[in-house]
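User: Sequence recovery, please. Input:
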């Protein structure tokens, strides 16, 4: 679709800007719909906002997989998950009243962090295990889907009947519904749907431009996917997370990140299904394991922070935010040296 490096860069930049604008509006609508539907911020963030903000990753990753670019596809989705977790550290810097993981304490967020660690191990197992003869997809792929659905079942049960409650402190921000709405509920859903479609189209354009940039600039698919497209397709998560904090929807900001990463595991499964040359896990470079392992490490660190609930830390951010910022910087250095 795009033929020159200049056109690719322009298209990449424009698509990224569209994602940023749409993402900021999605956060406000998500907070409103969470209140008006009675779902609450945590559940809405997991079931709907996470899916919508993952659309650029879905479109970009599936496009690369169909185009026989396994490294570009998998580094994009795996790199995006690490970037999303990084965004929680950045969001903690923006929220100055207390450690974000302290203020947004929720049993649902704890469950999501644990579920994400489980899901992240599955594609890594697929990489190091042989494919079953005669199967076009790896047996791990349907397991990922089943594990995700079972995990959602646990999340819903946790939301309905939690067996663990965070200790309420002066810094804890409860999910309090607002009563100030603009327009009818169907109109709000309509705006939400339009923004979701725009975000998805922008994600597809972004990946098409990334392919051109990788080819014309002689950059590796791993480097382009794991850093450039991962950052660009993850901008909805950053924008919606920061915007949710501005609106006071702290639970939504955290559940959106964890929920998005859990949903991205379905994107991994879709990439395996859409890849024409058998299982995508067998054709991608081993460096892709780096992003998966880094994401597991970052999620585990954040889980420790959610349980510990440090009120203030170095620079008024939690110890977990400091650690994940350092882990991501180290991971980028490794990928650049190896990519």
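Assistant: Recovered sequence (339 residues):
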């Amino acid at each position: 679709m795009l033929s020159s490096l200049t056109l690719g860069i322009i298209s990449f930049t424009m698509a990224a800007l569209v994602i940023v604008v749409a993402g900021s509006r999605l956060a406000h609508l998500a907070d409103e719909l969470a209140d008006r539907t009675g779902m609450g911020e945590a559940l809405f963030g997991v079931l709907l906002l996470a899916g919508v903000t993952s659309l650029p990753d879905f479109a970009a990753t599936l496009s690369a997989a169909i185009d026989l670019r396994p490294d570009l596809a998998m580094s994009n989705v795996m790199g995006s998950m690490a970037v999303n977790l990084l965004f929680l550290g950045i969001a903690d810097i923006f929220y100055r009243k207390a450690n974000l993981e302290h203020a947004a304490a929720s049993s649902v967020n704890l469950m999501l962090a644990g579920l994400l660690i489980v899901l992240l191990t599955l594609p890594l197992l697929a990489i190091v295990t042989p494919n079953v003869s005669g199967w076009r997809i790896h047996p791990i792929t349907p397991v990922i889907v089943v594990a995700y659905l079972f995990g959602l079942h646990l999340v819903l049960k946790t939301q309905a009947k939690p067996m663990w409650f965070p200790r309420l402190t002066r810094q804890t921000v409860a999910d309090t519904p607002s009563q100030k709405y603009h327009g009818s509920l169907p109109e709000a859903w309509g705006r939400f749907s339009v923004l979701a479609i725009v975000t998805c189209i922008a994600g597809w354009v972004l990946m098409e431009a990334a392919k051109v940039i990788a080819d014309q600039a002689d950059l590796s698919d791993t480097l382009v996917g794991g850093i450039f497209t991962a950052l660009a397709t993850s901008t909805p998560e950053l924008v919606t997370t920061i915007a949710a904090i501005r609106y006071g929807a702290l639970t939504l900001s955290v559940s959106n990140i964890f929920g998005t990463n859990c949903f991205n595991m379905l994107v991994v499964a879709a990439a395996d299904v859409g890849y024409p040359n058998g299982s995508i896990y067998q054709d991608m470079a081993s460096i892709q394991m780096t992003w998966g392992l880094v994401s597991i490490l970052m999620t585990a660190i954040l889980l420790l922070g959610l349980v510990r609930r440090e009120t203030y830390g170095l620079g008024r951010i939690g110890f977990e935010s400091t650690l994940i910022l350092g882990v991501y910087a180290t991971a980028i250095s490794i990928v650049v040296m190896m990519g």
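Residues 5-170+185-338 form a domain with the A middle domain of Talin 1 fold (CATH 1.20.1420.30).
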